[in-house]
Design a protein that fits this description.
Layout (H helix, E strand, L loop, with lengths): L2 H4 L1 H23 L5 E3 L10 E5 L2 E11 L6 E5 L9 E7 L6 E8 L14 E3 L11 E9 L4 E3 L2 H9 L2
Parallel strand pairs: 3-5
Antiparallel strand pairs: 1-2, 2-3, 4-8, 5-6, 6-9, 7-8
Amino acid sequence: MSKHFIHSSFREKLIEHLFISEMLKLSWKSGHCSLEVLKPEVDNAGYDIVLEDNNIIRHIQLKASKLGGKTSRQTIHTRLLEKPSGCMIWILFDEVTLDFHSFYYFGSIANTPLPDINNLKTARHTKGNASGYKSERPNIRVINKGDFIPYSRLEDLYKVLFTP
């Protein structure tokens, strides 16, 4: 079995820390050194990290997939709509080196709420109950890859996140 499957929680945190590190590095290189990073104590509001720069606060749900993976959609929590500038960032990475390859962004311009996702398909649980029925997850929606904006450079994504 692949360690990406066996140690998926470890990998998820590692990708998150690498992403934060790269964002901090961009803030450093800009000369501002002003990026703030916050982490929620409880994971029930649809976001993994909060980044603030240039008086813009971004509640970010992070997703990650191996380059060449078959995933063509992601799930997003509807509570992210409650945040002033919520968004989702989907990172594609090299499974050997863990280097970032590209980024997919779902959100609006800075200081603007997330586009309405309530009309998107409601996600279902991945595992069925005893009879195999996979019930709906009422607060989770499915977003297709085509609904994301692709970026090949993290610098470009940083500008989208923090330029008013």
